Amino acid sequence: MNSRGKALRGFAPVSWAILLGVPVLLGGLSANPALAQSQTKGDASIRLELQHISTGTFEFDIGEADYWTTDTQVVLISGDYAISDRMTVFGALPYVRKRFTSLVDWGGDPHNPNDFYWVDFVPPDKRFWDDGEYHGDFQDFSIGVSYVLTEEGPLTVTPFMSYGVPVSNYPFFAKAAIGKNLWTLPVGVSLSYVPYFSDWHFAGSIAYVFSEKPINVNVDYSVLHLSAGYWFKPNLSINAFLAGKYTWQGYEFLDFVDDLATFVYPDDVGTEAWWHHDRLFAARHLNIGVGFDYFLNENYKVSGSGYTGIWAETTNVIDSAFTLGVTRYFGGE
Questions:
Q1: Which of 11, 140, 165, 321 could join 53 in a cystine, given CB atoms 3.0 to 4.6 angstroms apart?
Q2: Which residues pair with 236 in a beta bridge?
Q3: Between vectors from CA 206 to CA 290 and to CA 217, what angle results, nearest 5°?
Q4: Going by C-beta distance under 8 Å and a sequence separation of 6 or more, which residues neighbour residue 105?
C-alpha cells in the first residue's frame, strides 16, 4: 500500500472524539479505523497522539457563562489490525488530565460535592477536582471492527461499530472531569472518495452513538466528520475538516429548574439530577480545523491538526485545540 492509501486507511476516528471536542474524553467516539483503502490481511498500525484542548464560554438555553476555562491534555494510544482484506479490528486507550481555571475572584462556580446545598441528596463521591490543579487518569478503552463494504472505483464505503467502556472510576461531577464515565456503542459508516487522476481526496464519517443512560435519561448522540484534502507532494497532504456532535434528547439547564421566578443557584440544585447534570446535558457543537499528514517513509507518518469551535449549545465552546501524532505501519501478506 502506498502512502496515500495508508493515510486514508488510518484517517479517522481515532481522533474523532478529540476533533468533536468530546474527547475520547467526553465519552465520544474513540477509535475506528475508518477508510480502509486496498488493505491486505495482516496490515496493521500503531499510533501515539498528543492533544491539547482549551475551552471557554459555556453556551446554554438562558444565556452564557464566561467566568471559567478548562485545559485538557491527552496521550492517546491506538492501533488497528486487518484480519482479512476487508475486516479490521481496532482499539484505543487515552490517558486524560484536565484543569478547571476560574476567571473571577469569587471562584467561578467549581463543582464541589462537599458544598452546603447537598442536603436532600448526598453525593456518593466526595472527590473535588475543581481546585485549579490538573487531575488525570486513564479514561475509556474502545474496541471495534470495520468492514470494507465496497471499494469500487474512487469510492470506498466502510461500516463500523465499536464499544467504549471506562477503565477507571474517575469522577464525573466536576468541570475538570475527564469524561462522563458511561459506556458507549457507536455504529456508523465512513466513506472516502479519491477522484481519478487527481491529487484531491475527500472523506466523511457519520455515527449514531448509543450511550448508557444516567438515571434512565436517553443521552444518545450523533457525530459527523467531513474532510477535504490535497496531496501537495507524494508524501504530504493538507486537509480541512468539519466535525460536529448532536445530542438528540438530554437536558437543558431549565429542565433542572421548577420555578425560574423563585430559583436560587446553587441553593436549589442539590438533587440527584444535578449530581448527574454534566452527563445529562444535551451537548451540541461544531468545530472546524486544518490538518496535515507527512510520510517520513513507507512505515512512519507524522500528522497533526488545529481546530476551534464555531457553534455550541449546552456545552463549552472550544477556544483552541491541537493534536500531533506518529503512526507506525506494518505490512501484511
A1: 321
A2: 233, 294
A3: 115
A4: none
Greatest C-alpha distance within the chain? 70
Residue 141 exposure: Cα atoms within 13 Å on the Cβ side: 4
Give percent of the chain with pLDDT exceeding 90: 79
Write the single-letter amino acid at 52. H
Question: Quick one: three-class SS letters along 254-317?
Answer: HHHCCCCCCCCCCHHHCCHHHHCHHHHECCEEEEEEEEEEEECCCCEEEEEEEEEEEEEECEEE
DSSP reduced 3-state for 19? helix
Band of the pLDDT at 153, cuts 50, 70, 90?
A: confident
Q: Is the pTM here over 0.85, yes or no?
A: yes
Domains of the chain: 3-330 (2.40.128.130)
> What dihedral angle (degrees, nearest 10) is formed by the CA atoms of 211, 175, 135, 117?
-110
Element (H, E) at 151: none
Mean pLDDT across the chain? 89
Residue carrying C-alpha cell 477508510: 35
pLDDT at 27 over 50: no
State the Cα–Cα distance between residues 115 and 126, nearest whole angstrom. Answer: 10
CA separation (Å) from 327 to 6, 34, 120, 146, 185?
A: 10, 15, 51, 19, 25
Query: Radius of gyration over alpha carbons of the chain, in Å?
Result: 21
Omega prior to 266 cis, within 30 of 0: yes
**Phi and psi (nearest 5°) for 82?**
-85, 110
232: left (phi over 0), alpha (psi -120 to 50) or beta: alpha
* CA distance between the termini of the chain: 11
160 burial (CB, 10 Å; 0-12 / 13-18 / 19+) is buried
